[in-house]
């Protein structure tokens, strides 16, 4: 029997999966819409949209909201919107002095946020991985108690990362080398009830890349398709979005601006090289510069980083000479390195993240002045410097955004349609 002109079942399933994804992504990007408006916006016919929406409701991915009327005539329709609170993606950042876990639902609302201070390098790789697993299991337990389903977990690491293999190539500030992180976490997390019986989808990426994704998706860079994100932590990372797309480079190792040789004093960096930019602007440099002796609470790795930075702000407000001199020195060096990026990339927005963002009022005058002096293009190339509002949670939130992409790409991963 000829099947010419008739789509094979596999093709029909592929088309439907693609259309489910189209509708779900449209609701994410455009907000609540009536079925008629979705059909008009996407070019799908109304009957198809009604069927797709019904399936997405059955899968727990969308819900019906308020009545909407299009124009002045015709019957009003119920709006359709993303369902919040139950389907979540988890992002976790592993950094030198903390583990930060964030869970976002489909609306990108925060369902869970938890940070655990720890000296991750001092723990050594095995104990640090044990702590990471414990933090994730505690988060999974809490999410399961709220009736959530985790669709994926993305881990942010300050490292050169082979994201396709889920492997940390080298993380100087953690002391990790050639670590198969995704595989190890997948084994450790397998079978948790919050996963709904699915295999744990674990991915790994560079922390600055994920910070840039977070700023572009839900932070201060939402209106800019060309942005540079600078992450100020123990190390210094850079994520670049050009034309709305994250720049990864030929082998995925872009953004290592912290190891650019910009320090003329040639001080030794945690990576083993000398003269790296992060020896001028890394978090440890700032805290050491502001501290009054080795017992200063600024230097306590077990202390919450937000509290320690609050102490820096307090000392600056009190005109503490050592603190003010350090902030000026770091701010000028930050502007110098940022000017290199602005000259190369010409972004519309430069986002200061991590501690750079939290101390932005104290650093910005020096950064902007140095950019004005060093950027070749008129008016600084039109770049606008903005302080991140996500703080040290940017990378974990970016990880959660990435984890949720699996559902937006294929909604059939979650639940099942009513029979």
Automatic annotation (TrEMBL):
Gene3D superfamilies registered for this protein in UniProt: 3.30.420.40, Winged helix-like DNA-binding domain superfamily/Winged helix DNA-binding domain
Domain HTH iclR-type: 23-63
InterPro entries: ATPase_NBD, ROK, Tscrpt_reg_IclR_N, WH-like_DNA-bd_sf, WH_DNA-bd_sf
Pfam family, one: ROK
Family membership noted in the UniProt record: Belongs to the ROK (NagC/XylR) family.
UniProt-recorded name of the protein: ROK family protein
